[in-house]
Amino acid sequence: MAIFSISHSESGRKQLSLKSPVDLSHIDTYDCANSDEISAVMTQAKIAQSKWKQTTLKERVELMHRVADVVIQQQDRIMDVVMRETGKPVQEAMAMEVFSAVDSLVFYAKRAEKWLSDKKIKMHGPMRFLKKTIITYKPRGVVAVITPWNGPFILSINPVIQAILCGNSVIVKPSEVTPMSGAMVQEIFALADAPMHLVQTLIGDGETGAELISQGPDKVSFTGSVATGKKIAAKCGEMLIPFSLELGGKDAMIVCSDADVKDAASGAVVGSFMNAGQYCCGTERIYVMSDIYDEFVAEVVSITKSLVQSNDCKGDVGPTFWDKQIDIIEDHVNDAIAKGATVLAGGKRNPAFAGLYFEPTVMTEVTHEMKIMKDETFGPVICIMKVSSEDEALSLANQSHYGLNGNVWTKDLVKGQKLARSIETGACSVNDMAMSYGVNEVPFGGVKNSGLGVVNGKEGLLGYAHAMPIIIGKKSASAYPYTDKSFEQLQGALKIFWGNRIVRKIFG
Ligand code: NAD
Known about the structure:
Elements: E1 4-8, E2 14-19, E3 26-31, H1 35-52, H2 57-73, H3 75-86, H4 90-116, E4 119-121, E5 131-139, E6 142-146, H5 154-165, E7 169-173, H6 179-191, E8 199-201, H7 206-214, E9 219-223, H8 226-239, E10 243-246, E11 251-255, H9 261-273, E12 283-289, H10 290-306, H11 323-338, E13 342-345, E14 361-364, E15 381-387, H12 390-397, E16 402-403, E17 406-409, H13 413-422, E18 429-430, E19 447-448, E20 451-452, H14 457-462, E21 465-473, H15 484-498, H16 501-507
Parallel strand pairs: 6-7, 6-9, 7-8, 9-10, 11-12, 11-17, 12-15, 14-15, 17-18
Antiparallel strand pairs: 1-2, 2-3, 4-5, 5-21, 10-20, 13-14, 16-19
Helix pairs in contact: 2-4, 3-4, 3-6, 4-5, 9-10
Nicotinamide-adenine-dinucleotide (NAD) binds at residues 146-151, 155, 173-176, 205-206, 209-210, 213, 223-225, 228, 231-232, 246-249, 280, 376, 378, 404, 437, 446, 451.
């Protein structure tokens, strides 16, 4: 029943055969890029980049607006391709893939000129009288964007937008589970009249991704699992290629006694079931104060039971996109049941469908001894634990080797912020499900095993450029020969500039 399988054609060509998670019907078979083709794509990307780096920021921004127009025009096609490969509800295809893509395009197009223009840097100390400095943002070259299957279009196009604005060319290696959704990015850029080979796609599996890195791109932007992230970090480390890693999570939700219980329950349901739980910042562990526990659990179960799971992309909760993932979900749920968890809703594959549907599930009496509270489940499962204090909730929330996102629910916003600051994650929301990937204003990146570096926001965008200082002066600041006089001048400057605190404030 594998969703994708690798085989070889009669001529020995490696091929990827894909099935629909909705009904396991055959979708298509694709050739995987071989080493020679990857090399050719790399050469074309270098040529395209050598021209693209000479464009003005205005021209790059203009391309982003054309791409935004094409995404809007092609929204149905994008959603169709994504839904064909994932079966996700149309509402999620629109919100996650199309709406977010246009939002990113417009957001970065508006700010790129300001963020990427040369910056004059005011020097401090004696240097301010001698030198001028500017920082110029140079493209890195060819960026390899390697992406997963859960947000197959948005997680591909979002890094591409940022890399292209910085003057790079891009090679996208989408997941083998959703190759055409990632490949749409190349098509969309072509329809927007992007220069030839500026954005290219390589179809293939992990070996294709590994070969792409072996061919020496100038930056790797990776989104995917911790296990692959570690392999990529090792390879990039060996080759000294800059990289960013956006990896998995096991996000915790803390519900305080003074939370709006209905609101928190609805946040728990959306945070856990959106994209059928296949969201890196999905809520995977919930810690609820004992005095509101019963009310919260009842509300969560009631909303869960009202949700529709259907195989027509019209329901609330769609399928798992990959058979390997549904096996993991099932294993985690069964492990929890065997160790004493109580299932209040769902708890098994949905027998009504031939495809990969796991019922929206609510479990209580869960413990940190269970896989479901330790490892990433990435499925439509809500796990709730009762706690007797906020300190206990925080301590349990931080008992994880992941640190991507989290969310805290309370009417006391000061307390909410305090708890959020104490959570060991890359980001945290107060009174909302973890939504930081969608907030373009802020950098997004995990701590602990959840990643290295950031994407998004000004910091993420600048990661696709090399900030190059150019220090300009009329003559050298310290010229040979060293003499007693030059030594005394230096000592004098030390006293004048740093000798008292008032002057330090002025020249520091
Ligand atoms: P994965 O690591 O299996 O694969 C991701 C991509 O890496 C695929 O394109 C794959 O072909 C490629 N790949 C595999 N081995 C490779 C290698 N050795 N060298 C180069 N490329 C290689 O991950 P997945 O199962 O596709 O995605 C699910 C994971 O992604 C989950 O853990 C999820 O939490 C995480 N994720 C993280 C974020 C984030 O922003 N932090 C966002 C979405 C998903």
